[in-house]
Amino acid sequence: MIxxxxxxxxxxxxxxxLDAVTIKTIAAIVTQRARAPRVTARAIQxxxxxxxxxxxxxxxxxPARFGTVAATPEELRERLAPRAAALAAALAHVxxxxxxxxxxxxxxxxPDRRSxxxxxxxxxxxxxxxxxxxxxxxxxxxIVDERVESSTRGRRLGAVHHLVEARDIDAYVDALAxxxxxxRRRFSVTGPMPPxxxxxxxxxxxx
Length: 207
Description:
Elements: E1 2-9, H1 10-15, E2 20-23, E3 26-32, H2 41-56, E4 62-63, E5 69-70, H3 73-80, H4 84-94, E6 97-105, H5 116-128, H6 133-139, E7 145-150, E8 156-165, H7 169-177, H8 181-184, E9 187-193, H9 202-205
């Protein structure tokens, strides 16, 4: 069984001498396994370590969804071929860049149900996560791209994922640290990390 770790370009896979299955101009970085991996804390940490090692080698990657497997190289090629162009474009987009994530604390108010229009407006506002705007403004000079993840769970409003040039990571962190303390306590930042949020059609790309 083939366990898919990430996607890179075919050229980079050859240069780094990776175990990979090539599909047009991209390559799926793989390992051989007897069975599908189980989702455990140890397995997740091992996967993150493997992705970090690839980045230290200078390999541009789009991480695969954990547990993505295929029975044969032919099956994997068949599944990824229709998405090869989108994945190649995404690899070009993330090259030399890392993901930073701002987590936003707070509680989401109930949607405005006074009318259908009010309800839709309140839902649209929640999806944009305006509570992150002070942090967005602080780092606006370093944002290449953004993905928003809203949440209704507990004391977490959601997260804003930013694609940032690797050379700007320290400046990005410093800009957030310069926010006034009361505002800064509403946010926490993680990263740099592989560009998990910037895989095109993440739920489908490795289906």
